[in-house]
Amino acid sequence: MKSKFLFLAVVALMVLSLGLVACGGGGTSSGNGEPVAQAPEPTAAPVGDPEAGKAQFDTVCIACHGPGGVGVEGLGKPFTTSEFLLTVDDQELLEFIKTGRPISHPDNTTGVDMPPKGGNPALTDEQLLDIIAYIRTLHE
Fold first, then answer.
1. By residue range, what is the domain housing residue 109?
2. How many domains, the chain?
3. Does the predicted TM-score (pTM) go above 0.70?
């Protein structure tokens, strides 16, 4: 008799558990009858291809930022030790590259313009995201 009761209790718990799972665990209310706000779906982060980015980097960015992003004194900052790269996400970096940084900008410490898109207006956002993916691999 005891084993029959235990079996029925286990079955009842399984049914109750499945019901809660199917209903989302009852998390649609804050406890006072008001619906709980759902967290927004995370947006997909920009993604690029580092290999394609290296090819673009080696034709556009290398002149100022050097091979492997080590920087060129008086022209372009190194990416290998850049604190700036650690403070911006890919979307912010994309906008920065698309805009560039003129000499007159207060954060310009090189004394030379960084032209929009590195001086190549034909670069697409996809190509720039590839470059960003490559640059992210360079930081030590």
1. 50-138
2. 1
3. no
